[in-house]
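Predict the assembly for these two chains.
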Amino acid sequence: MKEFTGYRCSLCGTEYVPGEVTYTCPKDGGNLDVVLDYDEIKKKYQIEDIVSRDDPSLWRYLPLLPVKDPGGEGTPLRMAGGTPVYSPPALKKELGLKSLWIKDEGRNPSASFKDRASSVVVARAREIKSDVVVTASTGNAGAALACMSAAVGQKSVIFAPKTAPPAKVAQLIVFGAQVILVDGNYDSAFDLTIEASREFGWYCRNTGFNPFTVEGKKTGGLEIWEQVLLNLDDECKPACIFVSVGDGNIISGLHKGFKDLRELGWLTQMPRIFGVQSEGSAAIANAFFAGDEKIIPISATTLADSISVDLPRDGVRGVRAARETGGSYILVSDEEIIQGIAALGKVGIFAEPAGSTAYAGLKKALASHLITEDDPVVVINTGNGLKDIKSAMQAVNPAPIIEPSMKALKKHLGI
Amino acid sequence: MKEFTGYRCSLCGTEYVPGEVTYTCPKDGGNLDVVLDYDEIKKKYQIEDIVSRDDPSLWRYLPLLPVKDPGGEGTPLRMAGGTPVYSPPALKKELGLKSLWIKDEGRNPSASFKDRASSVVVARAREIKSDVVVTASTGNAGAALACMSAAVGQKSVIFAPKTAPPAKVAQLIVFGAQVILVDGNYDSAFDLTIEASREFGWYCRNTGFNPFTVEGKKTGGLEIWEQVLLNLDDECKPACIFVSVGDGNIISGLHKGFKDLRELGWLTQMPRIFGVQSEGSAAIANAFFAGDEKIIPISATTLADSISVDLPRDGVRGVRAARETGGSYILVSDEEIIQGIAALGKVGIFAEPAGSTAYAGLKKALASHLITEDDPVVVINTGNGLKDIKSAMQAVNPAPIIEPSMKALKKHLGI
C-alpha cells in the first residue's frame, strides 16, 4: 500500500520508513503510529467511494489500512467486522438518553472486537511472509488470532494465563492454534511472547507492541463513523463513545480511526472518547487522573479478565484518546460490571464483563454529569457473554428445578 | 399480511383460515403449513424487489412472511439472520469438492439458527397481543426466544431440561426470561409447556407445534437461495444442503422456504436436502429409511444436545424434506460429530455439536457416494461452539501449562 509511508513514535516523534522497524520505537520503546499519506488517499477516494463499497466487513476500509488485500475470500478473515449497532428503546428510556447506540462486537467471527486487530495483523503476516504468528492473550486476542490464522492456513502460537476462562481456551485450541498456558498472569505471557518471537523469528501480534493491532482496531471507529456519526445532524453535540480499557489498545484504535478520518476531512466533529476501567485494574485511568502520561504498573484484580492488566502496553495513547477528545476516564466496580451484564441482557444483548464495563461507565458518567442526556452516546460491547458464563451467572439468580408436572409448576408459581 | 390466507394440515390436508386454529390440526394433531397466496405476492413483488432491499437481516423477506412488520427497530429482533456463508478453500480441497459453502448461524444475535424462528414467533405474539410467550427448549430455542422477547419487552417463560449445557442456561437467564428447569428430558418439558399454555393462556412457541417456527426458519433457506443458489449457473447440478435434524423443524423450514420460492417461480431447481442425525437420536431417519412417515419415539442419547430428541415434533415434514427433494438421511456417530468440531475449527469456524453434525454428514455422504465431488454443497452450522465448550474440549487435547520462562518454553518445544 503506497499510502503507508512509515511509522512515528508516539513518545519521541521519530519517524521510520516501513522496513526500518517492526514493533516499538528502538529509541524509547514507544508505541509506533502508522503514518499514512492522507493527500494521496484523498486523491484516490472520496467518502462515497468508501460507503458505497459492496463489502459489509471491515475490509471495506482497505483504502485506509496499511496492508494489501490479504485474499482469503470466503473465510472468516474476510468477514470480520461489520457488526451491528443496536439502539434499544428500553435502555434509552431508562437512562433518559436522547440517543444511544450499542455496537455489538460479540457478533464477530470469534465473538469479540479482537478479530479486527487479528485480521489486519494476519494480513500483514502474509505480506511479510511470516511462518508463525505468536501472541500473548487473556483469551480474546488469542482466539481472534487463532481464528483468523486458521481461516487462511497461517500457523499461530498463543500464550495465555492459565486462569483464562475455559470457553476462551477451548476456542483457541479448537481453532487449531498451538496453545501454551503459562503459570503466571497476562504480563508474564506478554514478556515470554516477545522473547520467543525474538529468538525464534516468529511474528509477534502482541497488543500495542505490534503497530498493526491499532490499525485493525481503528476499523471499529470507522464503522461507528459510518453507522452513527455520518447520520448525526450538523447541530448535534459531539458523540460520546464508551469503551472498556485494559491495555489501552482498543481505545487507541478508535482514536486513530477518528484521527485518520479528520485528517481526510471526512469527520467534521471529533467524538469524545470515554475509557472505562475496573477499579481493580486502573493503571491508565490513574495516569489520566494524575494529569500526566506516566503509566505506573499495578497489581490488577478484576473479574473482567479481558481488561485485567498490570502493565498496560498502550497506556500513553490510551490516556491521550480521552484527553485529546474532551473525554475522560471512569472507574467502575466489579459489582457494577456484573449489574451491567444483567442490564444489557434485559434488552437482548449478552455481554462479557469487559463489554458491560463500558455500559457501567456510561451509567456513572450520567450520574456524575460527565455527560448529559442529550449527548449522543455509543457504547461498545467488546465481546460475547458466552465467553465467560461464570461471570454471567453472577449477574442473575440460578433457575429453579421442578418435576415436569402441572402440580409442581403451579406450586412453583404459587398458583 | 393479506397474502397469509390460512393453514393446511400436513397430514390430512384440511384447510383453516388464520383465526380458526393456533397450533396443530384439531383433527389429527398434524403440523400446520402456513398457506400463502403466491399470486398476490407475485403481483406485488419480483425477485429484484427482494434482493435489492436495504436490510441485511431476515426481515428483508417480510413480503414472504405471514406476519406484519413487528417494529422493534434498533433491537436484536430486527437484526436476526443475515448470517454469512463461508467457502473455506482448505476444506474444499480436503474433501475434493468443486464448491462448498458453510452458513454460520452462530453469528446470529443469540448465536444460533433458532433466532429465526423466535423472531417471527415474537412478531406473531405482538400481532395477537400475547402477554406471555412460552417454550420448551434444549437451550437454543429458549435463548433465542428470551433474546428476541427481551429485545422488545415481551415477557417469556422457558422450560428446559436440567441437563441443558450451562452456557445455554446462563443465556436464558441473562436475557431476563423466567426460566424453569425440569427434572426430565426435552419431551417432558415440551408436554408441560403445552399444558401450561392451555391453562394460563400463554402463547406457545414450541418448535413444530407452533406453525410460525417453520416460517421463521424458512428464512435460512431464503438466504441460501440469495447467497448461493441465485449465483449458480443454469447447467449446475442441484445444490445439496446438509443440516442436522433433531425435531425436524429446521429441515422443514428450509424445505418450506424453497417450496415458497418455487411456487413464486423464483427458484428454478430445487436443492436436495440431506438431514443428518446422530445415531443415538435417529427417530426421523428411522422413518425415512423404513420408507414411510410413521415416527416411532426412541430413547435419545447423543452429546449433541440440540438434536437429542425422543419424539420429534416435526417428523413427518422432516422426512418429506429429504424424500421430496431427492435428498436423504444420514446417521453419524458422536465421535464423528466431535471430529467435525475440530475439522471446522481448523478453518476458523467454531461449531456446537449440532452444527458439526451436518459437516460429519457431508463427509459420510461423500464416502458413501450419496453425492459426488461436483455437487454444489451447503453445510449449515446451526450454532456457535461457545454454547457447549464441554463438547468442544472433547474434540481437542488440553493445552499444556508451563512456567513463564524461555527455559520452560524450550523444554516444552523440545528445543
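The longest helix of chain A spans residues 211-227. Residues 78-108+211-394 of chain A form a domain with the Rossmann fold fold (CATH 3.40.50.1100).
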